[in-house]
Amino acid sequence: MSTSKAQVQSEIQEKTEHLKKLKASPETTKEEIDEVTARLAELRAQAGGKSSGKLILKTAKGTKDYGPQQMALREKVLSIIMDCFKQHGAETIDTPVFELKDFDIAGQYEEMLPDVECVKLIDEILTALKLGDFVIKVNHRLILDGIFAVCGVPAEKFRTICSSVDKLDKASWEDVKAEMVNEKGLANETADRIGEYVKQSGGEALLKTLLSDMILMGNPWAKKGLELMRLFFSYCELFDITPHVSFDLSLARGLDYYTGIIFEAILLGYSSQPIVNGSGEEAGGVGSVAGGGRYDNLVGMFDAKGKSVPCVGVSFGVERIFSIMEGKLTSENCSIRTTETQVYVASAQKGLLQERMKLTSFLWKNGIKTEQPYRSNPKLLAQLQYCEDRKIPLAIVLGQSEMEQGVVKLRDVQSREEEDVPRDHLLGAIRSRLHIPSS
Amino acid sequence: MSTSKAQVQSEIQEKTEHLKKLKASPETTKEEIDEVTARLAELRAQAGGKSSGKLILKTAKGTKDYGPQQMALREKVLSIIMDCFKQHGAETIDTPVFELKDFDIAGQYEEMLPDVECVKLIDEILTALKLGDFVIKVNHRLILDGIFAVCGVPAEKFRTICSSVDKLDKASWEDVKAEMVNEKGLANETADRIGEYVKQSGGEALLKTLLSDMILMGNPWAKKGLELMRLFFSYCELFDITPHVSFDLSLARGLDYYTGIIFEAILLGYSSQPIVNGSGEEAGGVGSVAGGGRYDNLVGMFDAKGKSVPCVGVSFGVERIFSIMEGKLTSENCSIRTTETQVYVASAQKGLLQERMKLTSFLWKNGIKTEQPYRSNPKLLAQLQYCEDRKIPLAIVLGQSEMEQGVVKLRDVQSREEEDVPRDHLLGAIRSRLHIPSS
User: Fold this and answer.
1) In CATH, which of 3.30.930.10, 3.40.50.1000, 3.30.70.1560, 3.40.50.2300 is domain B70-330?
2) Do A56 and B90 touch (CB under 8 A)?
3) What is the pLDDT of residues B346-370, one digit of tens each?
4) What is d(CA B87, CA A194) in angstroms, rounded to the nearest whole number?
5) Which of A144, A162, A401, B181 sits at a 20 to 30 Å CA gap from B232?
6) Which residues on A lie below 8 Å from B305 (Cβ)?
């Protein structure tokens, strides 16, 4: 046994003793017990053992170890994201695991049409994840280039000045200006002129202001970029996402390869302080959860004729979304279900194992996720407690007298209300309470 | 660019030329074009480029590269398996990727109750996967030990003789007997007596025969094992799986750690010849797709008090199931859908982009997986061909005259039947044709 395994074993011993003491004390809260129990389950999983219950054990290599709660949360987040992807006709070409993903639309298409679909997708996913209010900042690289040109930046400095502008989400204008002037050699007035532009953000009103800016419109890049953004905003209107979209001239997105629209989704109410990700890289403000843009000339994208393929794509900060959702659940003192069991088949007295098994089998056959105790004569209270702990919505309580009348007791676990349901109507009653359509 | 990348590029050039020629020839079949197109898509994915369309790009490391068809198949298989697991209240404690899985029930429970649930789960999954007819062989380690004892095998040779018996699915009795006698030093008549037992298989009838075998029942291990199997078969009846279960005394499952029931599912109609898996290990007959058993004393399984936890588990040969399903699809000349798009919003004439976008957005909002062309004025035939190629079930064809009458054309892509549907009833009509309940 390796040292770390020995440490795990020793912590298991310690926590087991601790749990015993907690359970013996009348002052112990359920949360304290839950906490130690959860830690024990974790330790046992680490030790290669397992807690009692039905588990699908890990098989993937190279991924972090997660507990059942975290796994359930991750599955939920990924399934929401995948459902939205599929809603837009996406196909998967390899296993998406717990890293960033690329939803990409590649091909020579109508201008701004794939681009607005990427932004629509961000809007749908953030809405579905219920992470709170958000804004999707958009800008266009051609507009930034045009601004730099009319402000007097030499062409060879466009990229480096762009990366200075990119820092505006974390640094003040004064700091960014100092970098432009002192480190990158811009004239003071050139930097000031850039500042007048990049401080602006807003919706279509800003677009109108810029479209009537004769100096900017005199530059062919800016003109083209602004006209594309006008088209983009008209599409936002059709896709019903205008309220979430903010035209933000300070959005630059550092990566050199963007050539067209760029966008970034920010959760409001979260700090925009930079955070460092697991690989030690700075990963942007915690509020930033998705981003992307158009990259038409990227090496390696080519069609059957060897031509480069225009492409627009979006990535989601999946690990960050997990962290935010975990934090939210903790602060709201919620736990999330680790199983999807819909019905628990309990018995009120002894000798009903066979009846329970027949009923359980019948429910499985009809697609109802069902559990029943693995003991022949379990105590009723323990069974009901199990349902409440596991947040199973419905319990069937089998009893001899009800069975003789051809009915079973159907219990709503949360409200604890019980109703006698004729055996022939049981499936319908369960489906109706679970909002499952009859198949 | 590495050599292998250069090779990929060169094959892309070659296949592209080939495709051109195929398309130019009147004798080319759709299958020939499909084949080359699929290979091109694969090559492009390999080259780090991508084909046109919406893709979720790979992020996982250490997994094979799969094409969209294979990914869709893998997703389908895994989702069927996971759904069945969840139907039984399982929780996931780490990412299940494309390897074997362990569904396990750990804990001190009623005898044979978790065991029969594992066999029921195999039955459900193989039925849901529609892989054809199958049999689930079962046996019990105590019965094997009892047989060895009454046949005169010394106790220290039980395990090694057990592993000889395990070879009976691939080798003849004569070869196995020779190994027992010549290599493992059993007396000829001892081996013959074992042979009389392990050649037997059947259902409850065999169980009855053995229960009335006074010699065997005189051994306490065999007696206990046979009584447990009687209980097991009575549970099989309650779970409605008896027709698929075969009591097979030659089933031994080589692994030493099994202590109770053992089981293995075999697809009928597949060769039982051994196959070698990707790691070069022999992976059993191709027909064997799931197996497991009870392992009560395995090191590392312990409860909060440090006692060992009884455990029964089942593993699925997921890669083998993929291969079998791929082979089946190929031999039936079927392709599987790589996207889940339900509706395609097409236009019959020019100038309808805005209407298409509004309708697409409306369908997304209502949870309908929808695509529309990324061109403002696409050709109608090309749009309908796209739907047929991608097996999208429904197309909406927008036309000016229909719009003036407040209707849209709803087309069943496969039958090519069209119907004018009032715009207000469109969502209901789509849901009804797709069998989606209204939410």
Assistant:
1) 3.30.930.10
2) yes
3) 999 999 999 999 999 999 999 899 9
4) 60
5) A401
6) 16
A340 interfaces chain B, CB cutoff of 8 Å: yes
For helices B68-87 and B113-129, give the axis angle rounded to 10 degrees. 150
Q: What average pLDDT does the structure give for chain A?
A: 81
Q: DSSP class of residue B439?
A: -
Q: Which residues of B touch A369 (CB under 8 A)?
A: 86-89
State the nearest Cα–Cα gap between B349 and chain A, in angstroms.
16
Query: Is B394 an 8 Å CB contact of chain A?
Result: no
User: What is the DSSP code string of A38-79?
Assistant: HHHHHHHHHTT---SEEEE----SSS----HHHHHHHHHHHH
Reported ipTM: the value is: 0.70
Query: Is B432's Cβ below 8 Å from some Cβ in A?
Result: no
**Dist CA B376 CA A157 (whole Å):** 37
Flag if A59 and B101 touch (Cβ within 8 Å).
yes
| Block residue for tokens 């700091």 | A175
Distance CA A4, CA A412 (A): 45
Q: Do B57 and A94 make contact, defined as CB atoms within 8 angstroms?
A: yes
Please name the residue of chain A whose CA is at the shortest distance from the CA of residue B12: A304
Name residues 194-223 of chain A within 8 A of B (Cβ).
none
| Residues in chain B within 8 Å Cβ distance of A310 | none
Residue B342 forms beta bridges with which residues? none
Q: What's the CATH fold of domain A70-331?
A: BirA Bifunctional Protein; domain 2 (3.30.930)
Q: Which of A71-85, B5-19, B95-109, B343-357 has the lowest mean pLDDT?
A: B95-109
pLDDT tens sequence across B76-105: 888 888 888 888 887 765 444 433 458 777
Across A260-274, B29-43, B258-272, the highest mean pLDDT is recorded for: B258-272
The DSSP symbol for B203 reads S
Which CATH topology does B343-434 take? Rossmann fold (3.40.50)
B212 pLDDT higher than 50: yes
Q: Give domain limits for chain A.
A: 3-57, 70-331, 343-434
Residue B367: count other Cβ atoms within 10 Å of its Cβ.
Answer: 14
Taking residues A122-146, report their average pLDDT: 93
Is B71 close to A86, i.e. CB distance below 8 A?
Answer: no
Q: Which residues of A touch B92 (CB under 8 A)?
A: 55-56, 68, 71-72, 75, 338
Q: What is the pLDDT of residue A52?
A: 39
Q: Is B90 touching A (CB cutoff 8 A)?
A: yes
Residues in chain A: 439
Domains B70-330 and B343-434 share a fold: no
Amino acid type, B174:
E
